[in-house]
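re: that chain from earlier
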Amino acid sequence: MFGYVVVNKPELKIREFHEYQSYYCGLCRTLKQRWGIRGQISLSYDMTFLAILLSLLYEPVEEELAERCVAHPMEKHRARHNEMIAYAADMNLMLTWYKCRDDLKDEKRVVKGIYGMSLGSGIDEIKNIYERQHRAVQDNMEKLAFLEGECCEDIDNLSGCFGHLLEEIFVVKQDEWESCLRRMGFHMGKFVYLLDAYDDLEQDRKKGCFNPFLHRAGKEGFDEWIKEILTMTAVEFASAFERLPLVEHVDILRNIIYSGIWTRYEEVRKKRMEGNGGR
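^ sequence. v structure.
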């Protein structure tokens, strides 16, 4: 996955970070239990956010464990498990599989391709259980690949593909919260696509790969323009988020939405500025 939907750890209270970690570890544990180490490798911060969001919204029956793992060998740590974390694990694996497939096709990343193939049996199961979500991922990834292959520079259309993809993934149940979750997922998907393109800009230029910003990057005010469109997109998913009836641990999600994603943006921007000699 992309890894842009993260917490700003220094701004979290210690208790809040431990709660966030319990969801992250729970997602990691679920991936390992269901698909072994190959599933665990796919763990992402992005789907941790979804696991927390849906858990707080639907309040499923939850199990909490204390255990050691490779990442925390010295002491036991908390790991949650519930049906929403399991759902996020399935979506995490499906998105990883499609990302590996595209990396192999577009950039000839053989290692990624081999890893993606190792996930095949799990993906077949997920496709059958979540037909709506799978169809949305497949259709929008194919549309995105076509647009990128045509060197389309319509960023609204391009980012909209990933927006529609994440929109369906955010909707685990078609109920009274569907419209809010759709709006939130759509605009968060656009944000992730745009920030990822901005992050990969110089690398794509060197490799001769498609990037929707290649022809705009040299123009005056480009970086300010990027921040402006990211801000407008972030406002949309934050607005949808605030309409959800969330209470417990809501400050963790607010940390991610209003601070965490921007720490990642600042890291990307700093890297770009240093690469351009500070300009």
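The mean pLDDT is 90.
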